[in-house]
Write a structure and sequence with these properties.
With about 350 residues, the protein is of the alpha/beta class. Helix content is about 45%, strand content about 15%. It has a seven-stranded parallel beta sheet. Strands 10-9-8-11-12-13 form a six-stranded parallel beta sheet, sandwiched between helices. The model has no long low-confidence stretch (mean pLDDT about 95). The protein binds uridine-diphosphate-N-acetylglucosamine.
């Protein structure tokens, strides 16, 4: 049986690593990795492959950046050629990025079976490009691997037959569990005693410059209470130049380059609070029990709120200040880890896939 993994962006690498490893224990399965090239900077891609011990991609489609339509179309036509040369029996796609939906479309046209890892998540916000990617990929997939039972409920409501849905748990947490000891060893020699870790990269936050400026002013205020470490995504780095707030001048806000996986995970373990608009970080902080404030109106990962340590603050910056104050005054209560976020999700996926052969 020949399986091809399609990865393109940072979070894909983190999710594919444990699945590739788990499948490599099944000797009747051959695997290949196709990197679409959606993320191409060394610190957005190569370093993840190295740290997560993912084999070098067999193919790199080198599609680079561009509008969503261009990026998706380039992935589709180049991947189509790759699959014409050697046709996989199953293609595994991950998460909700443009590379995910592009690969799913190619496979559906070629009649190649698709497995979607991290299926069923819904923000119910069609204004998010990722939501479109999720809905379409799930409709096209033959095997849908969900991280939590809300995913199963969403898929059922969309008419996906029950036998295609497999509740396996969270593969991003598999990677976290494996890498945690190394991450703890990767901590910088000196860290502030108390700090907030911040990441922002969603177009809805960083492409709206007046709003981004307001957020930066709120961060500047918070930085009077604790130091802020802010690894800056390339999209955000560009946007910061257009704002009227120069946070780089504040000695309490450290703007950093995008960080490798281990270093960033290490910082999450030590952070007093995390402020983010990322999907995966809502999950990682839930596992670690670190208070997380998500600057979004909705989340496709509701268990991080109902069970975990995540709070949606939306566009209410006063609420953000208030919530941070609650943590500082000790009024905050920790959540719980969701079921099956136990480090073994990829093994459950491998068992389902292996039984197909
Ligand atoms: C993509 C995903 C998003 C995911 C994020 C993780 C989609 C629609 N979005 O967003 O869901 O949360 O990855 O990081 O697929 N750039 C570089 N170097 C790189 C990659 C990007 O400089 O290696 C810059 C380019 O200017 C590019 C911009 O960042 O235009 C955005 O990159 P893109 O891959 O389009 O989307 P992300 O914002 O990274």
């Amino acid at each position: 049986m020949f399986i091809s993994h399609i990865v393109g962006a940072r979070p894909n690498f983190v999710k594919a690593a444990p699945v590739h490893r788990a499948l490599s224990k099944h000797t009747h399965i051959q695997q290949s990795i196709v990197h679409t090239g959606q993320h191409y900077d060394a610190n957005m891609s190569d370093v993840f492959f190295r740290q997560l011990a993912i084999p070098e991609p067999d193919v790199n489609l080198q599609v680079g950046s561009g509008s969503h339509a261009h990026q998706t179309a380039r992935i589709m036509s180049r991947l189509d050629e790759v699959f014409q040369q050697r046709r996989p029996d199953l293609v595994l796609v991950y998460g909700d990025v443009n590379s995910t939906v592009a690969a799913a479309l190619v496979c559906s046209k070629l009649g190649i079976r698709i497995g979607h890892v991290e299926a069923g998540l819904r923000s119910f916000d069609r204004g998010m490009p990722e939501e479109i990617n999720r809905v379409l990929t799930d409709q096209l997939s033959d095997l849908l691997f969900t991280p939590s039972s809300d995913g199963n409920d969403n898929l059922r409501k969309e008419g996906i037959p029950e036998h295609r849905i497999h509740l396996v748990g969270n593969v991003m947490i598999d990677t976290l569990v494996t890498m945690l000891p190394l991450a703890r060893q990767s901590l910088p020699a000196s860290l502030p005693k108390r700090f907030a870790l911040v990441t922002l990269h969603r177009p809805s936050n960083v492409d709206d410059l007046p709003w981004l400026s307001n957020m930066l002013r709120t961060l500047a205020k918070l930085s009077e209470k604790m130091e802020i470490l802010f690894p800056v995504h390339p999209r955000t780095r560009q946007a910061l130049l257009g704002t009227d707030v120069n946070v780089g001048n504040s000695s309490n806000i450290r703007l950093l380059d995008p960080m490798p996986y281990l270093e960033f995970l290490g910082l999450q373990t030590q952070a007093h609070i995390v402020i983010t608009d990322s999907g995966g970080i809502q999950e990682e902080t839930t596992y670690l029990g670190v208070p997380c404030f998500t600057v979004r109106e909705n989340t496709e990962r509701p268990v991080t709120i109902t069970s975990g340590s995540n709070t949606l603050v939306g566009r209410d910056l006063q609420r953000l200040e208030h919530e941070v104050q609650r943590v500082l005054s000790g009024a905050w209560t920790n959540g719980k880890r969701p079921a099956l976020w136990d480090g073994h999700a990829a093994e459950r996926i491998a068992a389902v896939v292996s039984a197909l052969a």
